Amino acid sequence: MRASELRKTVLKMPGRKYLAAACAALVALALCAPAAAQKQKQKQEPTTGNIVGRVKVAPGATPGGVAVTVRRGDEEVARRETNSKGEFEFQGLAPGTYGLTLRKAGLEVGKMEDVQVRAGKTVSLKDKLYLPIDDGSIAHIRGSVFDINGRSVNGATVELARVEADGSSKKLDSRVSNATGSFAFRLTPARGRYRLTAKADGAAPATEEVNVDGAAIYRVAISLHPKK
User: Fold this and answer.
1) What CATH number did the domain enclosing 181 receive?
2) 39 and 95 inside one domain
3) Are residues 150 and 116 in the same domain?
4) 219 SS3 class
5) In what order do the strands lie in the sheet with 122-131?
6) Most exposed residue of 140, 142, 188, 226, measured as fewest CB within 10 angstroms of its CB?
7) ∠ at Cα 191 (187, 197), nearest 5°?
8) Are 54 and 41 a contacting pair, CB within 8 Å?
C-alpha cells in the first residue's frame, strides 16, 4: 500500500484502533523512507566513463581531422575525428580496458593500449599522443641553390607556393639554404603544381616549378644571377 493510501485509511479509524494504526503507519513510513532513498541513490550512480585527449603532430602537419578509433580487444567501439586543435572526446564507455588507434594521411599510425575506463571517471590523454610524419606516404621537394658559377649559395631564402588552376599562387612555406645550398619541403602526396622562388643578397629572384604527382622525392636546382 502506498503511503498516501495508508494515511487515508488510518484517518478513518476511531479510538484505540486509530492510535494503533497510526503507530503502525509511522513505523511503515520510517522503514520505507531509507529503502526509497537507497533506491534513488542507486539510480544516480554513474555506470559509464569517458576518454578525452589531444593529438600533437609533427611540424608542417595539422592536428585536425585525425581519425581516432576506440577498441576493446579486436572490436571497434567508437570513432571520432579531432577538431582543429587536435582534441577529441568519447563519452558513455562501459568500464574496462581499451586501446586507441590514430590515423591521418601523411602521418604515421599511432596506437595507445591499456587505457583503463572507470564508471564516473574521465581519462585524460592530453599531450600524450604524438604523430610523426610518415616519410613513405608524403611528397618531398629537395633542391639546391647555386650562383652563376655553380657554387652553392648559403643563406638563400627559398619560398614555396602552390600554383592554383587560375594561375594565381598561394605561399605555403619557406626555408633558408644551408652551407651546401640545400633545402627541403614536405607536402601531401596530392597532385599539384608548386613554385619555388629563391632570393639572396645581390642576386635577382629566380623561380622553378615542380609538378607533384604522388608520394615521391622531387629534386630541383635553382640558379641565381647577379642583379643588373
Assistant:
1) 2.60.40.1120
2) no
3) no
4) strand
5) 87-93, 49-57, 122-131
6) 226
7) 55
8) no
Q: In the listed set 134, 152, 184, which residue is the last one of a domain according to the structure?
A: 134
98 and 60 in a common domain: yes
Grid cell locating 199:
632570393
pLDDT by position in tens, the chain (length 228): 555 554 555 445 555 554 455 445 554 555 555 555 555 555 678 999 999 999 999 887 899 999 999 999 889 999 999 999 999 999 999 999 999 999 998 889 999 999 999 999 999 998 899 999 888 888 999 999 999 999 999 999 999 999 999 999 999 999 999 999 999 998 888 899 999 999 999 999 999 999 999 989 999 999 999 998
For residue 82, count other CB atoms closer than 10 A to its CB: 23
Please give the model's pTM, rounded to 2 decimal places. Answer: 0.55
Which strands make up the sheet holding 182-187, listed edge to edge?
182-187, 139-146, 217-223
| Number of structural domains in the chain | 3
- Residue where one domain finishes, among candidates 86, 118, 134: 134
CATH of the domain at 91: 2.60.40.10
Grid cell, residue 220, equals: 630541383
Whether 56 contacts 129, CB under 8 Å = yes
What is the spatial distance between Cα 70 and Cα 72, in angstroms, rounded to a whole number? 7
- Closest among 106, 65, 105 to 85, alpha carbons compared: 65
Structural domain including 13 reads 3-44
